[in-house]
Amino acid sequence: MAENLKGRNLLTLLDFTPKEIHYLLDLSAILKANKRAGIYGDTLKRKNIALIFEKPSTRTRTAFTVACVDEGAHPEYLGKNDIQLGKKETVKDTARVLGRVFDGIEFRGFKHDTVVQLGKYAGVPVWNGLTDTFHPTQILADFLTVKENFGHLKGIRFAYLGDGRNNMANSLMIGAAKMGMDFRIVAPDGMYPDTALIDTAKKIAAETDAKLTFTAGVADGVKDCDVLYTDVWASMGEEDKIPERIRLLKPYQVNINVVNATGNDEVIFLHCLPAFHNGETDMARKFPDIKEVSEDVFESKHAKVFDQAENRMHTIKAVMVATLGNQ
Ligand code: CP
Ligand code: NVA
Q: Which ligand is nearest to the CA of 59?
């Protein structure tokens, strides 16, 4: 059933109802099948899309760019040193200028308030491509991947291990609550989302029959899980905290013991990527113990991380088509 999302921002999944999220996932699956069949749309023809990036990106940047081109839009990359934002010009002024020039704006950066201000003043749809607090387009790709593997989201037993109060933990918790899932954050005591956000998630969960668990115990937390999920132990901008995070989060590494502790041979492993798993990157060479997922799990039959990465493009396309496209 088509939902009318025209003109809407996507700042967090709190902005959308469960029905609207289902609609975006269904639209993503259609757009994915169409692309596989060589069918492209022109729903974004002549639209100009600003892609603002204060932080680096592989998946989000390329997903927005290719999704724009597939649907006939022009993407314009605006890196942190390319525009005046934050240095000589306020967010509010930048929003009003870019809103006059562009038809839609993606923002990736540090403060969540920046994307909120863009959304308030631009007058065109604004999409959050990751802030310190939320990463909503990632969750759509994650949930599309879960649906591709299990056919549904409701009741799915989903354990997130690691830094339990970063942008991914916050966003997965809200998404899981909206979709009625059995969601567990498995992290050291005190590394859970802000109390106010947990309260919001609990209120949503009461309406959707979602179950939310916060535990420091790995074996209990992952028992019977359908999905194991982890993210980097130190997010972009937190590089100085790496030694401390390794010490705190090493017991939460997703390795074969954790997979076995689910008791489910069909469990899938997801990671938003980039991931530390084999020590072969510059940062991993500097910090040999930084490894939130072991190589054998990352390369196992359980891992669906590259389907998930591809799904960034289909889901981001669906968000732009639904909020801006001439369908
Ligand atoms: N998952 C994700 O957002 O990846 P990038 O940082 O490469 O965009
Ligand atoms: N928590 C990670 C997610 C990367 C997609 C970060 O913010 O760096």
A: 1
